[in-house]
Write a structure and sequence with these properties.
The protein is an alpha+beta fold. The chain contains three helices and two strands. The protein has a domain of 75 residues: Eukaryotic RPB6 RNA polymerase subunit. GO terms for molecular function: DNA binding; DNA-directed RNA polymerase activity.
């Protein structure tokens, strides 16, 4: 029954709807380009499957990561707020998954509070890797960093 009066006799359920007919492939000049059906050299389909096996792989200039020696560190010795948040979150997760606690507990049961206490006593056994713009990196243990 309709809300506007009248019956539903004129409703056919969309069975007789007509739609535009799709264009045949040969009418659209960009059909092959848009659908990835263009051909490469020698009639082979273009794409990743048409790579020549005989060619040597091309070096894309990937920078190898090298570790900076500890004596030649150039980054700041201060623990940033982002590193602090990541360290505390990671250590709290470890403690919540029953990792051994490295400081004496004084009634604390919250893993985050335990992690904060471990950080204050410099007992967190994690290493922070700081990447440099040239692709090298420096590793700092949490106990080496200044936390204030």
């Amino acid at each position: 029954m309709s809300d506007y009066g009248g019956g539903d006799d004129d409703f056919d359920g969309g069975m007789n709807d007509t739609f535009d007919e799709p264009l045949p492939e040969d009418e659209d000049p960009n059909y092959d380009l848009l659908n990835g059906e263009q051909q490469g050299e020698d009639g082979q389909p273009a794409g990743t499957g048409a790579m020549d096996v005989d060619r040597e792989p091309v070096d894309l200039g990937v920078v190898e990561q090298q570790r900076q020696p500890n004596k030649e560190r150039i980054t700041t010795p201060y623990l940033t707020k982002y590193e602090r948040a990541r360290i505390l979150g990671t250590r709290a997760l470890q403690i919540s998954m029953n990792a051994p606690v490295l400081v004496p507990l004084d009634g604390e049961s919250d893993p985050l509070q335990i992690a904060i206490k471990e950080l204050a006593q410099r007992k967190i056994p994690l290493v922070i890797r700081r990447y440099l713009p040239d692709g090298s990196f420096e590793d700092w243990s949490v106990s080496e960093l200044i936390t204030e």
